[in-house]
């Protein structure tokens, strides 16, 4: 038996890294029957190697160690289900761009909420700063450091801010996730000094193409690992109760305990601590509007699932 970590997962098999070597492994039959996420990138697994073959041999994943932490989102292809992106992580880098495609703060806030609910520290990586940051965007970005979310500004094309990003990633397993076309693969290529295929963003709709088609774990020196993920068009939350959403927004969570009702949704309920803080300008109206947008989307999907 051999212990290793899954660094790539396809629909049929997985690549397992063990002692500096990669092995292509199939899943044991009982694992394939264990739901939708039996083995994901980042899992530590036990592998039974095929007899009589050398380095790079095929093997079979026979067991998966308990996952410590993971990040997931909702997938609405057919019946709604949980899609686990990666497991056994240390932090989440939310990668967005100034433009092409322009940052959508609602998507950022949903991603930050997903990370918080998974007990994972998260920060914003703002790419393509060489394109210039509009004043109204600067005002919106200024909110995040005030609520404890670090913002790293960089440009993969102009080599700006890359040292700061590299220092932030050092010694940790970091999943980079964000919309298609924001430059995740380009940033990884620059930070790790490896070549990852990229594609231009459509000039028509500013939507990127999925050049990363599967989650990939890129190990580096001194315990550093960067996990590249396919870009998303929309991040839908999975497994969060509508009544708990505000708990995962740092600027709202401190006010929730002041609510009169435990099931308060912070819309128009009497005795709502969040609404009181909003009226006293202790919560930014833009953040509250983002919360309402997230709440409405979760309630809509919840109704659709019935």
Q: Tags for this entry?
A:
9 helices, Rossmann fold, 26% helix, single chain, 6-stranded mixed beta sheet, 306 residues, OB fold (Dihydrolipoamide Acetyltransferase, E2P), alpha/beta, Ribonucleotide Reductase Protein R1, domain 1, 5-stranded mixed beta barrel, 3 domains
Spell out the blueprint of helices and strands.
Elements: E1 2-9, E2 13-18, E3 21-27, H1 29-32, E4 44-49, E5 59-64, E6 70-75, E7 81-87, E8 91-97, H2 105-117, E9 122-127, H3 135-141, H4 143-146, E10 151-153, H5 162-169, E11 173-177, H6 184-192, E12 216-219, E13 225-228, H7 250-256, H8 273-279, H9 285-305
Parallel strand pairs: 3-5, 8-9, 8-11, 9-10, 11-13
Antiparallel strand pairs: 1-2, 1-4, 2-3, 4-5, 6-7, 12-13
Helix pairs in contact: 2-9
